[in-house]
Amino acid sequence: xxxxxxxxxxxxxxxxxxxxxxxxxxxxxxxxxxxxxxxxxxxxxxxxxxxxxxxxxxxxxxxxxxxxxxxxxxxxxxxxxxxxxxxxxxxxxxxxxxxxxxxxxxxxxxxxxxxxxxxxxxxxxxxxxxxxxxxxxxxxxxxxxxxxxxxxxxxxxxxxxxxxxxxxxxxxxxxxxxxxxxxxxxxxxxxxxxxxxxxxxxxxxxxxxxxxxxxxxxxxxxxxxx
Amino acid sequence: xxxxxxxxxxxxxxxxxxxxxxxxxxxxxxxxxxxxxxxxxxxxxxxxxxxxxxxxxxxxxxxxxxxxxxxxxxxxxxxxxxxxxxxxxxxxxxxxxxxxxxxxxxxxxxxxxxxxxxxxxxxxxxxxxxxxxxxxxxxxxxxxxxxxxxxxxxxxxxxxxxxxxxxxxxxxxxxxxxxxxxxxxxxxxxxxxxxxxxxxxxxx
Lengths: 226, 204
Fold this sequence. Notes:
Largest sheet of chain A: 3 strands, antiparallel
Helix content of chain A: 40-55%
Helix content of chain B: 40-55%
Structural class of chain A: alpha+beta
Number of strands of chain A: 5
Strand content of chain B: 5-15%
Order of helices and strands of chain B: HHHHHEEEHHHH
Oligomer: heterodimer
Strand order of the largest sheet of chain A: 4-3-5
Strand content of chain A: 5-15%
Number of helices of chain B: 9
Shape of chain B: globular
Shape of chain A: globular
Distance between the termini of chain B: 46 Å
Radius of gyration of chain A: 18 Å
Radius of gyration of chain B: 17 Å
Structural class of chain B: mainly alpha
Number of strands of chain B: 3
Largest sheet of chain B: 3 strands, antiparallel
Strand order of the largest sheet of chain B: 2-1-3
């Protein structure tokens, strides 16, 4: 019997979802490169400045990738368990930075690409049922995000087994998957994400960022994960 | 380090830690404690209480401002230099290790020059200088070490002036900003509880 051929878009669905550009080195290990933004650096103004977006994407995210690739090379060359295990914090930190920022760029969109337009469909129902309203979810995420001490992220995640939406925070660049949750929406609360524009007033950054949240992306992550 | 940075760092960040800490301990038995003791108490042996972050950050920032001076940096002299050369090999080796620690503290935190008392198992017969890095609000007091110098590597400490270029900020700190006078004064105080020289020799 001939094998089932799925349409190309279905087959590549999950891979496209990840959309993290990779190349395979001639030495046989995978390295990563900086994904492009779907919008200009200045497109999220006045909520997030172009200056921040450019530094955040072309410097901070780029550095995580550079250092992740360097750690992957060391991993490839490691000759004993001690050397392998010694790399775990570099992998977690830099790999996590790459994962988290790749999600973040897609979670954002300018107003003319739908940024700020509330959730529809299954995600909207789930939010309504589990939080009461989108406004209540936002309040909860903002207070959790403001309370992160040091550097980290605030997330809307999915507990897949319980089919429960969860607001959770992570420290530094720990990926949300380390906590067993699927990331749907992440807001970077490292100071570099807002300092040049908002200085110490993180709550103002959190209040404003909802104007450029790309709910379509969050919804498709939700539906993909279910 | 720009005026604007100091206005925000001292006037907003540090002030908020102090104000919030005062609110948290108001009316409790913690109110009369010295800040250093409050920090150790709040750390609670690794299971920090709700006010540890504010207490630690209040202490750390006091210590940081005193670690700086205009026209500072360059090399220390006297006993500080002697011990640095003894325990790191050279001032340059110390500077490299300090820069490395400050640059590789993942996320928010601090890098420190500390005095460490003689080892409890007898393998270190005298106290020595060392470099440590801590995350978020943690400081060497909670480890039983004696802080001598610190650099704040939370992004708010350098972002307005250096953006992502933390290594440039660290180099400027070493070259232009360290108050070696403050370090010298702290070393003198540290000697009350740490013996930095061979026990037999110092009893001569």
